[in-house]
Give the backbone structure.
Amino acid sequence: MAVKWIILCFVGVLLLSFGYSYARAAHTKTEPASQNWATARRDSAGIAPDPVKLRSTAIIQIYAAPTYGWRGLVAVHPWIIFKREGETAFTRYDVISWGSTNVVRRNYAIPDGYWFGSKPKLLVDHRGAQAEAMIPNIVAAIKSYPYPHTYHAWPGPNSNTFMAHIGREVPDLQLDMPSNAIGKDYRGITNPIGLPPSGRGVQVSVLGLLGVTLGVEEGVEVNVLGLNLGVDFKNPALRLPFVGRVGFDNPQNAGL
């Protein structure tokens, strides 16, 4: 009986979360209904700082935006940008499933551009000496990504798997990936236990389909078929499937 109620509650959360995601998408939609991927907005969202004005400052930022089309109701696409001290342009890295056998792309799009019509949200912002010290580790993490020629939208590996890999390798990023970043929990069948995407805590996950995460940034999160439900205790919030975070924002991003 207890198992039955747990299942019913989980299904109820899924339905409510999807309904909320759909309503939010309809309310915030700015693109015409006739818009398609080729003409969807890709210009700057005006979030990234001016790299020329901040020439003397090292900067790291991570973004996530709803994916294109109906998948934007359930999942996000992340990317990372960075520049070293003295540089006047950002370098961007994300994983893209089309156009090349190498899914890891450098400068595929502008640093803070709309993702096929969807405005990105800032997840991480580090600047100064701390950022400068992390950049070599980020570059090494990108090079060591274990799936450079493989992409599966569900359950992974995909763009969220890539960003989670960087977070694990560079815990100083304090990366808190949203619960609707499907693929962030993907782990190889021979490596089901390890660090969560934040790089601090523990995660048990079977191919991103079933698992649990206990992390400093993530709190407690349960994954069933790639759908995550949990509670963040550090910055109190619910972590819901389809929706992402509902509660207080990470203070490192407040006001950005």
About this structure: The chain has a mean pLDDT of 88. The longest strand covers residues 59-66.
